[in-house]
Amino acid sequence: MSTTWRLLPQLLLPLLLILFQLQTTEAIWFPWYFHRYGFEAHSHGATTKVLPSGKAEKTTPISKSSNAGSATCPPGYQLKERTPATCPPGYQLKSKSAACPSESRLCDDNPLVMQLARLYVVSPERIVLLLAQPMLMEACEEISDVVDHIRSATSNCFISDDNIYGKLADGLKYYKEEVCDGGADSSSSNKKRCASLNEAHSCLKELRTDMIECEAPADWYEQRNATKVCQTFNDVLDCYYTRGAMLCGLEAARHLRSFAGDSMKRSMIHACDVNRRLPRVMDPMPVITAASTNSLNVLLASSFVSLHIIDIFI
Ligand SMILES: *[C@@H]1O[C@H](CO)[C@@H](O)[C@H](O)[C@H]1NC(C)=O
């Protein structure tokens, strides 16, 4: 019932327009139309008043044979011209069978820009920077909302492959899957990376300024020279790794670099490979102090670390 009432304002205007334009003989698809949206005509003379179904007086049987054309667009509508504008509002969103053609329509990317702006996502690096938000899980709620809005804004149109906002949206979706949703659908190594990034969050927060300093000049990823772009891409990754290792330890740095590589790759038009060689860090932070400054935690952490040291030597 709630969807019916939410759709009501959208439906009334086109219905009224159609009622005025069509003679009753042309209105044979009305029962189908009403039925589809939870409305019912009292008789097949389509000019009668309508009531929401399930309310009262649900007596008239629906004529199924009235729908001679496709099952997704009212007959007559589709025949005029095959553009999305000929379908009733809200129609394409519901039906996946592409009888109302949408495959040829480019998305307006303004809604994407607006949504990405909510999170200050203006570059591939800014998606990685979300790891340094003060509250990781609260940020995830907002990220999830942004991803939902982008999905509905692009559900009946397509974004070209070279649209940078589309790419940034892909990168953000990856962040949601891998950081917020725990790498749920991916390999166990990604799950481990997600756990590690969450564990290191108290330190990654402190890394925020360093991460901003690692960012490349504006629009670097939009350059035409792929060699140059990919060089910069790897410079940024190595910077994350080096700064991360100095502040949060090698393990957190490795996962930060790995995640940054995967998410930035998805946020860019050029396809870049991550260098296999890790940069050398002279004085990485030992794991113990990175874990916490709280004395009890340090105590716990030190016993944990000594176990790890044993691990290493075995
Ligand atoms: C791209 O950049 C690289 C390195 O900066 C340079 O050697 C190469 O000539 C450039 N390629 C083109 C097509 O400009």
UniProtKB/TrEMBL annotation:
| Chief location | secreted
Q: Which domain of life is it from?
A: Eukaryota
Indicate the transmembrane segments per the record: none
* Secreted keyword on record: yes
**Biased composition range(s): Polar residues:** 60-70
Region Disordered, residue ranges: 51-75
Check the UniProt entry and state the signal peptide residues, or none: 1-27
- From the Swiss-Prot or TrEMBL record, state where the protein is found: Secreted
Q: Does the keyword NAD apply?
A: no
Coiled coil segments of this chain: none
Q: Which UniProt keywords apply?
A: Repeat, Secreted, Signal
Q: What is this protein called?
A: DUF19 domain-containing protein
